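Supplementary Text 2. Reproducibility record for the structural model of the 70-residue chain.

All settings were left at their defaults, and a single model was retained for analysis rather than an ensemble. We include the record here because the model underlies the residue-level annotations in Supplementary Table 4.
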Amino acid sequence: MSKVFNGLSVRMVAYFIFAAVAGQGIAIFDPVAGTLTFHIDQMETLLSGVAGYVATFGIGRLAKARGGSS
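Retained model, structure tokens:
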């Protein structure tokens, strides 16, 4: 694995995504049935946020690779 995608960065992205899912009420856990339900219509908000997060990170890395600072 490259330095960009080491274990720590993957965990940090996962923490961000799961915190966003829990905070937005996008996923609901039913303890009686033991199921986790995702609301597809609300996933658009989460996915647009994740796309913005990934794009910002990628553009920063691209700028840094070309000799700029981010």
